[in-house]
Every structure is written in C-alpha cells, then in structure tokens.
Amino acid sequence: MMNTLLALVSKELRVFWNDRTAVVLSFLVPMVLITIFGMIFGGGGGGPSGIRVLVVDEANSETSEKLIEILRSEDTFRIFTDRSLPEGESVPLEREYAASLLQTDASTYRYLLILPEDLLSEDFGFNLELLYNPQNTIENNIVQGILQKTLFSQGFPLLLNNIEYGITDSVQDAFNGDLAMIISEHFGADPDEILEEINSGGFFGGAFSADSSAEGEETDASDDLLGGVFNMEKTQVFGKGKNPASQSVGGWAVMFLLFSLTGAASSLFEERDQGLFLRILAGPANRTQILWSKFIFCALLGLSQMVVLILFGEVVFDVITSWRQLLPLFVVSLAAASAATAFGMLLSSIAKTPAQANGLGTFLILGMSAFGGAMFPLFMIPETIRTYISPFTLVYWAMDGLLAVLWRDAGLVQVLPQVGVLFAIACVVLSIALWRFRRGDLFR
C-alpha cells in the first residue's frame, strides 16, 4: 500500500514539474506580491510622498516666499507654483486658473493652497485659503495634518521675526517666556528647557512632529494654539454629501471583474480539450467567429457583473446620488469589461495550460490592482511607480472613470478620455491575442 501511495505522489510531482512555467509562477507570484505590499505597508518609502499641491502666491512677499520654501522642504508634498504658457514661458499660478485645475484635472490635482494678499493678519498670525477634493479620506487627513504641522512648526518663527508686527527683542523675549510657560503647563515639559529651545530656534523646527503625543487635553491645547496662529479657510470642491465608500466599491468591482473574465476566457482550454472546437469548425463557423463569440460573451458577462456590483454598492452605501450618473457609469463599465475581456483572452493566447493562465493571471491582476488604485489609494504607492507604471494599467483608467462619475458627478463627455483609453487597450490587446491564437495550437 505504501509503495502505491509513493508512486502516486511521485506521479503528481512529475506532472507538476513538467509544466515549468506553472512551477515558476507558483513561487514567483507570492514573492512579487510580498514585495509590492512590503513597499507600501512596510514603511520602506518613509510614508506618502509626491502629493501634488498647487500654491498661489498673491502676497508676493518675502514671508510668502519663505512659506513656499518651507512647504517644498516637506517630502510629502510636490509643490507647483508656476504654469507654462504655449510660448514656453513660465508664469506664476493665478487663483482662477489653479482652481479650474481642481475641476478639470481632479485626478491629478486635489489641493490648492492660496497665500492671499492679507497673508499676515492684523492681530498676529497667517491668513490662508485651502481648496481641496477629499476623494480619499485617509489622504485628505494626512495632507491637512502634515500641512498644518509643517506650517506651524517651521512657519511660526517667521511671525516672531516679522518686522510688520513691531516685535522688538524685549517683546519677543517676554513672548517666548510666556509661550514656554503655556507649553509647559499643557505638555508637562520643563519651561527653562523649552525657552532655551525656542531661543535657539530648534523648538518649532522639531518639536511638533507627526508622531508627537496628542491625546485628551493636549490635542485641544495644540489645536487652540494652531487655530489662533493659522487662520485657514477651507473649501471642499468635490464630494459634498458623497460616501467615501465609492472608491472601495469601484476598486473591488474592477479587480473581481478581471478575475472573472480571465477565468471565463481561460475556458478556451477546456473547450479545446473536450474537442468542441474541432466539431464547431466542421460546420459553417470559422476560428475568428469562435474567438469573437467568446469575446462578446465575456464582455457581456463582465458588464453584467459591473452593473450588479455598482447597484449593490448603491443599496448598501448609497454611492449613486443622481440618475444622471447612470449613463456614464454604464459606458465606463462597458469599456472596462471590454478591456478586461481582451486581457483575459491575451493570457489564454500566451499560456499553454490552464495552470499557466491562472498563475500569470493572478500575478498580473493583483499587480495591476495594487498599482492602479483598486486595492488602496494611489497616494500610498511610491511616486515613481505612481507616475511611470500606474497609468499603463487598465485598472488605473477604470478606477479613474468610476471615481470621476461617483465622486465628481462627471458626465459622459468628461469621462470620454478614460473610456477612450480603455477601448484603445481593448483593441490593441485583443489584436495581439487574435494574432497569437492564429499562430498557436488552440484549434489543433
């Protein structure tokens, strides 16, 4: 009995080892995914970076220039203060133009900080304006928190040294002493040490960090102090009354669309092994018609799945806020289903066995979902990947189209770029798949 069992196990090992590609993918896929998630959640990148922030300097003063330099020193942000004219000349951003970018290019620019002419308040502090699109709650909280922390920790000394407030050395010494006592009272540190740090210029540059303890009354105290110095008027551009679950609904719908359609397209192997193709080809049908029928079926299946999942999201999370969203949602879903079907057929044309198709499909689907914004917000991905890899995934464009409709109430015209890219991906990928099928042995 034992010899029989060992012989059967040996047979399974030989069958598995004969498909070398499947063997490699069995180990390569988890390795790559571990690397991807480790880069994002392991902290190797030092936190979010490269989040685009538009800055309009209406004050045009030495103080405003220093504030901008302070913001540039923060790795979390990528500051834009100028725009290029058609002639190639670079000019400072204006309020109207910068605000329009948040409307017309909302997937790229979601934050606009304005330094108004009355940047310095009459009493003591800064007047600031922030226009923002909180497409993702986590990103929005991080951006606003780091923005306030950076301005307060490094911008506060600008107020103390600003001659417009007429702060003499004696007045500043008295102010520093009172401030040290207040901070000591609320945060429990030694006032003499705090005063020494303030006078040396090191206190505000490093005392308030993202990891500082801030619970209970300490949070209230720091918030009161911050609000008194930085008067920031905030205006939400998009998403009022929207459910942040829009991103989750769209992301998971796209990812499982890819899994479903890749599996459906891989059924070509089963039909080949069962001899269905040879019997069909004995009739009036030809190879091209068989492949097109598979594409149309899978695209309709994917469209149905997208519609059902979005309607489920509406029932559970109330993600659809207007009937005007239905048509653009349908068109984006159709384009995404077409691109996903073409992707599945390409996998089937490249792979030689179902095991290869499933392994390669899992690897590519999870990779595209991670880099395309389906699994988690794009700002969590390293900037290099976000810039040079994400836009080349169909998940990126499907997510961008869905969020444009669900979050920004974009109409059909506004989502035409995303729809066009998805249909272009479908055409190119399907053409390659059909060419591969003609050269392969699927119909032999």
UniProtKB/TrEMBL annotation:
Domain of life, source organism: Bacteria
Domain ABC-2 type transporter transmembrane: 24-435
GO molecular function, one term: ABC-type transporter activity
Pfam families xrefs: ABC2_membrane_3
UniProt subcellular location: Cell membrane
Cellular component aspect of the GO annotation: plasma membrane
Transmembrane segments: 20-42, 249-269, 289-317, 329-351, 363-381, 419-437
Bilayer topology term: Multi-pass membrane protein
Keyword Secreted recorded: no
PANTHER family tied to this protein: MEMBRANE COMPONENT OF ABC TRANSPORTER YHHJ-RELATED, TRANSPORT PERMEASE PROTEIN
Protein name: ABC transporter permease
Lineage, broadest ranks: Bacteria, Pseudomonadati, Verrucomicrobiota, Opitutia, Puniceicoccales
